[in-house]
Amino acid sequence: MTKLETYKKIKTAIKRQFMKNGVIRIILLFVLLKMFNVICGDLSFADSIKSSPNYLVILIHGVGTNYNSTFVEKYGNLEKYLKQNLNLDGYVYGYNFLDSKGSNYDHAKELADLSIANNWFEKAREGFKSWYAKEVLKKPNAVDLVPENVIPHKYILIAHSEGGLAARAYVTSDYYNNDVAALIKSLERKT
User: Fold this and answer.
1) Digit-coded pLDDT (tens) for 94-116
2) What are the extents of the domains in the chain?
3) For residue 17, what are the CA distances in angstroms to 11, 12, 180?
């Protein structure tokens, strides 16, 4: 199956699955399009490119909430959908901020500041290595054998509400590592 055929198949699946929920449909379409552009770029050479993503997807909840209430309850388990329906198992991660009511700047540091032990980006890389060792190498305890060149070092951030402000605080910070491929901020509809 060519990249273009894969793109069309995924786009159709997204439309079918989420016609009732416009917010999720828009988020997933942006993720899909960004994933497709990062992986394929120019379609003339798309078939020669490895099909696995070159980045990790990080789901960032808003202030005063947590990962579960945002991305499982509110958005119908977005992580599960991305993993199962878009074959991104091993590439999608979400965590809780230590202080859900902390400042955007504190959340930005917790998200990706390399001077902070166990920041979200590092946790996602470690999660990917564990997944790769178990699922690809078929050696769950062989995390040290995961080749460095297969570990994604770029991220797509999907942020809900004020989680988007934390993500923006990171990409405009002095400790930004030019490692964010896309920032997708969900908008809350007032009913």
Assistant:
1) 998 888 888 888 989 999 988 88
2) 51-186
3) 10, 9, 27
pLDDT tens column, 8-46: 666 565 555 544 455 455 555 555 555 545 444 444 333
123-126 long-range Cβ contacts below 8 angstroms, 24+ apart: 123/93, 123/95, 124/56, 124/58, 124/93, 124/155, 125/56, 125/151, 125/152, 125/153
Model pTM score: 0.71
Radius of gyration of the chain (CA): 17
**Are 1 and 8 within 8 A, CB to CB?**
no
Half-sphere exposure of 111 (CA within 13 A, CB side): 34
Per the listing, tokens 């040290």 go with 144
| CA distances, 28 to each of 6, 143, 176 (Å) | 15, 30, 25
